[in-house]
Design a protein that fits this description.
The protein folds into 2 domains: about 120 residues, Phosphorylase Kinase, domain 1; about 230 residues, Aminoglycoside 3'-phosphotransferase, Chain: A, domain 2. It contains 11 helices and 9 strands. Strand 2 and strand 3 form a beta hairpin. Helix content is about 40%, strand content about 10%. The strands form 3 sheets. A 5-stranded antiparallel β-sheet has the order 1-2-3-5-4, sandwiched between helices. The chain starts with a helix and ends in a 5-residue tail after the last helix. With about 375 residues, the chain is an alpha+beta fold.
């Protein structure tokens, strides 16, 4: 079996295999589709993918040129394509229409910056899978690989600039949650599981995800965390809002010359949920990277995205009192753990890693989960 620490370091610092699709073939097929869509002959540049993040839907960046009216039109575009089954997707289904619709809704109903959506193609014929196309934004994104708190522009920023980015990000999250869903058609954001509340349905949907993702494996720390949630369910779940689902700074594009969001990306995990679910996820994902940095002997960014600051900024901007945060922190750690087990499965499939005898060893933050369950994480 592979040495777990070596494998973990490699996974954090080397881009994983994301797709086996042939880019030249995709380019020709996308050219044909776009030509038919705009009613003019289209020329496409090279297809590329963003560096440093993204392991779910396939993201294609390209420039397209065609004649429209008075002369040539050139557009910088992005296509989000459902992953191929042979590439061991992280999730069992990829609802591209949900992503497209929630971006349209958020763009129309809030000040949250989302890329303008252009076309949704549900037919798998043109590219071999459903996809949608949106405008490409310009800016800078904190990297996942290697993590932003180990290298890069955000680590190099001053403490004041880092706090400026943090506050702007949390305020943006509050703006998202302030969308009044009364009377809106948001049924497409309901989690597809049984339950008498949005939170119950969300958690039950994650149980189904665990059953799908593990195959014949068992992950004791995941199952213990589900048991903890059942035993500590909040009496007051709080309001229901449009939850981003994967709300973290690695899914946000910031101004090239500043620290405010210019594009909020990756909406595939969006769902109706209490606001604390997004708050805890944003907080935990930084904790995840910080714990790894410290384990590798690096300082990281220990004062960034801390609970007290996030809660204070969110409450001041939203008027909502944050509750039951420990419950949602455990849930965030649990959800991320299941994703990490699937990421390991993909790495094993592509020959980039092996399974350890202890299957929970593929979860880098298992010790955090253990401390959360026994109560010692919060002191």
């Amino acid at each position: 079996m592979a040495d777990s620490d070596t494998t973990r370091d490699d996974e954090l610092n080397a881009p994983p295999t994301r797709s086996t699709r042939d880019r030249d073939e995709l380019r020709h097929r996308l050219t044909d589709w776009l030509t038919a869509r705009v009613g003019a002959e289209v020329t496409l540049g090279e297809l590329t993918s963003p560096d440093g993040s993204g392991m779910s839907s396939e993201t294609l960046l390209f420039d397209a040129t065609w004649n429209e009216g008075a002369g040539p039109t050139e557009q910088a575009l992005v296509a989000r394509v459902e992953p191929a089954a042979v590439d061991v997707p992280v999730f069992p289904t990829y609802d591209l229409e949900l992503q497209y619709r929630v971006m349209e809704l958020v763009g129309a109903r809030s000040s949250v910056p989302v890329p303008a959506t252009r076309w949704f193609e549900p037919d798998p014929g043109p590219l071999g899978a459903p996809f949608f196309v949106m405008d490409r934004m310009t800016g800078r994104v904190p990297s996942d690989i290697p993590p932003y708190l180990m290298d890069g522009w955000l680590l190099a920023a001053s403490p004041e600039e880092q706090r400026e980015l943090e506050d702007a990000t949390v305020r943006m999250l509050a703006d998202l949650h302030r969308i009044d869903i009364t009377g809106l058609d948001v049924g497409f954001l309901e989690s597809p599981a049984d339950g008498d509340t949005p939170l119950r349905r969300h958690v039950n949907n994650q149980r189904a995800y665990y059953d799908w993702s593990r195959g014949d494996r068992r992950h004791p720390i995941v199952e213990a965390s589900f048991d903890w949630l059942d035993a500590n369910w909040p009496e007051d779940e709080g309001p229901t809002v449009i939850g981003w689902g994967d709300g973290r700074i690695g899914n946000i594009m910031y101004a090239a010359d500043g620290y405010h969001p210019v594009a909020v990306l990756d909406w595939e995990m969006a769902a109706l949920a209490p606001p604390e679910m997004d708050i805890a996820w944003m907080m935990f994902l930084h904790t995840f990277f910080q714990e790894i940095a410290e384990a590798l002997g690096m300082e990281g960014m220990p004062d960034f995205l801390q609970r007290e600051n996030i809660v204070a900024t969110y409450e001041a901007h939203s008027g909502h009192t944050v509750k039951n945060l420990e419950f949602f922190e455990v849930y965030a750690a649990l959800r991320h753990a299941m994703i990490m087990t699937k990421v390991r499965e993909r790495s094993v499939h592509f020959g980039e890693a092996e399974w350890s005898d202890d299957l929970d060893d593929c979860i880098p933050h298992r010790h955090v989960m253990e401390q959360m369950i026994d109560g010692s994480w919060w002191g």
